[in-house]
Amino acid sequence: MTEDRTLRTSRTLPFSAKEIYGAFSSADLLALWWGPEGFSNTFEIFEFNEGGRWKFMMHAPDGSHYPNESSFEELVPDSKIVIHHDCPPNFKLTVKLTPDGKDTHLTWEQTFDDAETAQAVKKRAGSANEQNIDRLIHVLSQASNA
Description:
Blueprint: E1 6-13, H1 17-25, H2 27-33, E2 40-46, E3 53-59, E4 65-76, E5 80-85, E6 91-100, E7 103-112, H3 115-125, H4 128-145
Antiparallel strand pairs: 1-7, 2-3, 3-4, 4-5, 5-6, 6-7
Helix pairs in contact: 2-4
């Protein structure tokens, strides 16, 4: 059972699945919104294909730096993205995009190796996933108004 190991959030966004998928597939856009509010990113490797690597440094507002390494496990254009976070805390992120009229329902699920890690991340990171989605909406809104 993965329920106690999974952090889940979902939201309907006022963008097409193609636009949202594009915000993942474009390194330039992804660097603008990935992570909690106030964070920024420097990408070293970004190979957006199945089996591709994603290596980057996440920069916190307090000046701390967090190295990240992931791999893209499954990519279904405009529908599904599965990323495995290959450094602690290890998890699999599954993002599903389901059209809902002109909007898209996004489901974001992080599944950790064990329940203890999942709960520790939830306690420490709290609303980080919601902030990530808020930043995605902001970037897509800016792009559509450009």
